[in-house]
Amino acid sequence: MDEQGSLPGAMALKLDRGTDGAAHIAALARTRWELVQRITASTQFKKSPRLRDLFLYICRRAIDEAATEIREQEVGANVFGRSPDYDTSQDPIVRVQASQLRKKLQQYFESEGSSEPLILEIPKGGYLPVFRTRPKLPEASVPFGPDGLAGRSGIRRWLVPLLVSAVAVLAALSAWLAARGIELRASGGWDSSPALQLLWSRFFRANQPPSVVVADSCLSLLQDALRRPVGLNEYLRRDYRQWLEEVPSDSKLKDFLKMMMARQYTSLADLGLVKRILAVGGGRQQAVSVVFARNYQVRGASTDNLILLGSRRSNPWVELFEKPLNFRFDYDEESRKAIVRNHSPRAGESATYLIPGTGAEIQEGYAVVAFLPNLGRNGSVLIVAGTDMEATEAAGQFVTTEAQLGRFFQALSPRRRGELPYFEVLLKTKRVGGAPSECDVLAWRLPQV
């Protein structure tokens, strides 16, 4: 396959199904990383540590994370230590350094890299590396170096099976969404659904369409290994090296976690809920933004109509809006179970809600849905989180089904017709055969926001 730019990882998986496809993707990534390593070891980069850091960051985002866009503000925050919301118009450090980087790359391919069969460029106006085959040069066999991907202990044994598994997951995901798609396609939005309209009209606005932030499942795995939570501030720093130093000295585990934190995986429940949200929006969904938690920018929390999927363990952005909430998620490191804590129990309510049973014995779950203002109080926020994937799916059905939402809104008794107060609701869910079967309202509050 001819190299004509960075092929997104998900697309590569879709095009290359099966073991042969997984091996091809692994070889493609390996070839690109070996080129990157030769460039960083060249004379042009030995005395330029700042340019080397910039170069490695954007290459990691392109190769390991299959990024389709790299923003200037993101680079400034993660490479040059700027605040996540710094003003790029006042601080041009990324543009200046990127210009120098382009010159260094050109020098490399005209000197030490003149025989490279593969060329790496960073087109002006962006920061995403592009790989292309050097014209009229035969393909060369590139040996594995001692520091290359193939030389790392255990990596090759882990990588190909993981990619094959990812192909299987994508196939299962397609079938999972298709099975639920019949119900969703039958819905024409909220036009004849007053409860859905009352809620979702707050998000689907002509001049302020919603941003849906899906959970970072890789972060949950990392916290399982660390046996401690990772807060929003720590998450934004993305200090992978420090996190890995806390992991017990198992090289395979560290290699696996390093690889996982370079990927962008979310849950099936989140993707299914995104589809339900789009269906509720009817013809209004064209401008909806679906963002992986790791790629969301803090500035949007003050301006966006925001839908956060997952608790703060997998979606740390929830932390920005938790303070006024009565029902909050926690995690018990010993039992490795999510807990919902009721901070001010009323008569008949429990202080904690913990899933009973383990493994296949688990038939129940809990979920929280919260409707709040954004930080700028010029938009709305909806948090949908469950103790497991099935509970999150049940909560998603709750907020996108007229009958369930309508019954709850009757209990809320809005003070004036057409007015929806901010609310939080605790749900108890049941599942059968890995799918939610029931969803009952246990308690609700009107938070002081």
Could you explain how this protein is built, in words?
This protein is an alpha/beta fold. The protein folds into 3 domains: 9-155, no CATH class; 187-216 and 266-445, no CATH class; 217-261, no CATH class. It has helices spanning 9-15, 19-40, 43-46, 49-63, 72-79, 93-110, 155-185, 194-200, 217-226, 232-237, 240-246, 251-261, 268-281, 389-400, 402-412; strands spanning 118-121, 130-133, 210-214, 289-292, 305-309, 327-332, 337-342, 352-354, 364-373, 380-386, 423-432, 435-445. The strands form 3 sheets. A 7-stranded mixed sheet has the order 4-3-5-10-9-11-12, covered by helices on one side.
What attributes does this structure have?
449 residues, alpha/beta, 3 domains, seven-stranded mixed beta sheet, three-stranded antiparallel beta sheet, 15 helices, 12 strands, disordered N terminus
Instruction: Determine the mean pLDDT.
Output: 79
Distance between termini? 55 Å
Low-confidence stretches: 1-19, 137-188
Q: State the order of secondary-structure elements, H for helix, E for strand.
A: HHHHHHEEHHEHHHHHEEEEEEEHHEE
Count of strand segments? 12
* Helix residue percentage: 40-55%
Put simply, the count of helices is 15
Strand content: 15-25%
How would you briefly describe this protein structure?
Helices cover 41% and strands 17% of the residues. It is built from 15 helices and twelve strands.
What's the layout of helices and strands?
Blueprint: H1 9-15, H2 19-40, H3 43-46, H4 49-63, H5 72-79, H6 93-110, E1 118-121, E2 130-133, H7 155-185, H8 194-200, E3 210-214, H9 217-226, H10 232-237, H11 240-246, H12 251-261, H13 268-281, E4 289-292, E5 305-309, E6 327-332, E7 337-342, E8 352-354, E9 364-373, E10 380-386, H14 389-400, H15 402-412, E11 423-432, E12 435-445
Parallel strand pairs: 3-4, 3-5, 5-10
Antiparallel strand pairs: 1-2, 6-7, 7-8, 9-10, 9-11, 11-12
Helix pairs in contact: 2-4, 2-7, 4-6, 7-13, 13-14
